[in-house]
Specification:
Strand content: 5-15%
Number of helices: 8
Helix content: 55-70%
Oligomer: single chain
Bound molecules: thymidine-5'-phosphate
Distance between the termini: 17 Å
Number of strands: 5
Length: 203
């Protein structure tokens, strides 16, 4: 059996990635693919418990990184690797790039420590395609504040934090041109949908 496709969605909070993730899952199912729609942190019963902790409780930045990767370890073992082995498509709302962007870029955790964790937890596993939804921080913050009544621990961060997260994401995109597609998230949803259809046709 051929290996399924693995697509991750990334971007700063408020960039609109989760809306597009839902659209993509629906689109791929309409194309006849078997799709596993999932997210990080989360995606398993244990991972969702870790998500609750991560989004609410203050913690050391290394604890935060380790818990993100602990949730990811479980997610890969229980959900992602088995689905890909069955030839299914995995469409994941955030994956390992988020750890580099948020814990590395945003919090300033040593990139090498994150690379070691990524090597340990993922080995060679990488998404086939990463869609990076990029928007100026000011626009993303405005969208976020309009849509979110009770912001979580990350959403409460200031613009300067998100500038660093965005810069790290853009660095990841520049360093991985074959895997990461940069999407201008300030476009209309219709335009973004058409763009995503074209990108999917090429993978
Ligand atoms: P969400 O906004 O996509 O639901 O993700 C929840 C938050 O978790 C988001 O603010 C980014 C953060 N996050 C990290 O800091 N590191 C990670 O590795 C992941 C997957 C998410």
């Amino acid at each position: 059996m051929t290996r399924g496709r693995f697509i991750s969605f990334e971007g700063i909070d408020g960039a609109g990635k989760s809306t597009q993730h839902a659209w993509m899952v629906d689109y791929l199912r309409r194309q006849g693919h078997v799709v596993v729609a999932t997210r990080e942190p989360g995606g398993t019963a244990l991972g969702e418990k870790l998500r609750t902790l991560l989004l609410s409780d203050a913690m050391h930045l290394e604890t935060e990184a380790l818990l993100m990767f602990a949730a990811r370890r479980e997610h890969v073992a229980q959900v992602i690797a088995p689905a890909l082995a069955r030839g299914e498509w995995v469409v994941c709302d955030r994956f390992v790039d988020a750890s580099f962007a948020y814990q590395g870029g945003g919090r300033g955790l040593d990139w090498k420590k994150l690379e070691a964790l990524a090597q340990w937890v993922l080995g060679d596993l990488q998404p086939d395609l990463t869609l990076l939804f990029d928007a100026p921080v000011e626009i993303a913050q405005r969208r976020l504040h309009a849509a979110t009544a009770n912001p979580d621990r990350f959403e409460q961060e200031q613009a300067a934090f998100f500038e660093k997260v965005r810069a790290a994401y853009l660095r990841i995109a520049a360093e991985n041109p074959g895997r990461v597609r940069l999407i201008d998230a300030t476009q209309t949803p219709d335009n973004i949908n058409k763009l995503l259809e074209n990108i999917i046709a090429t993978i």
